[in-house]
């Protein structure tokens, strides 16, 4: 895989810390609420990337609703599906959809995209950056050769 040059993609594909404990997620939400004066883009992957940052009210609503969704649909004793670039001064948060976690087992399944991304940088269309699975490329190449 080639290294991305887009600043958002560089941050997106950089080191992220997993929030394994639900308490860690609570702390992240408190940190984001305290930084609501910063420009935060709320990106639902699969939709068009937002062109403008959210309002403080939109950020508060998203945090409240995504927290409810994660607790209801990720019925585990641990969180483990939220990642952040910096726990004390976050600028990028990946939230994986509990119903679309994909598989980490076996080769060739491709990148699993998060359900939502919070970012202080304008995001790019993540679906456009993910190559098709290799098994589909092979199928495509055989189709006309």
Descriptive report:
The protein has helices at residues 7-12, 22-34, 56-73, 134-144; strands at 17-18, 41-44, 82-84, 92-95, 116-119. Strands 1-3-4-5-2 form a 5-stranded antiparallel beta sheet. The protein is α+β, with helices and mostly antiparallel strands and 145 residues long. The chain starts with 6 loop residues before the first helix and ends with a helix. It is globular, with a radius of gyration of 17 Å. 33% of the residues lie in helices and 12% in strands. The protein has one domain (7-144). It has 4 helices and 5 strands, in the order αβαβαβββα.
Q: What is this structure's SSE topology?
A:
Layout: H1 7-12, E1 17-18, H2 22-34, E2 41-44, H3 56-73, E3 82-84, E4 92-95, E5 116-119, H4 134-144
Antiparallel strand pairs: 1-3, 2-5, 3-4, 4-5
């Amino acid at each position: 895989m080639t290294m991305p040059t887009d600043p958002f993609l560089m941050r997106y594909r950089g080191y992220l810390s997993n929030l394994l404990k639900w308490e860690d997620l609570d702390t992240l939400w408190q940190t984001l609420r305290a930084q609501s004066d910063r420009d935060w883009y709320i990106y639902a992957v699969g939709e068009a990337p937002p062109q403008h940052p959210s309002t403080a009210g939109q950020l508060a609503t998203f945090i409240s609703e995504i927290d409810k969704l994660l607790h209801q649909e990720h019925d585990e004793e641990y969180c483990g599906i939220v990642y952040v670039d910096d726990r004390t001064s976050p600028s990028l948060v990946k939230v994986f959809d509990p119903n679309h976690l994909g598989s980490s087992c076996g080769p060739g399944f491709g990148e699993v995209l998060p359900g939502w991304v919070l970012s202080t940088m304008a995001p790019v269309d993540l679906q456009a950056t993910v190559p098709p699975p290799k098994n589909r490329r092979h199928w495509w190449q055989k189709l006309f050769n």
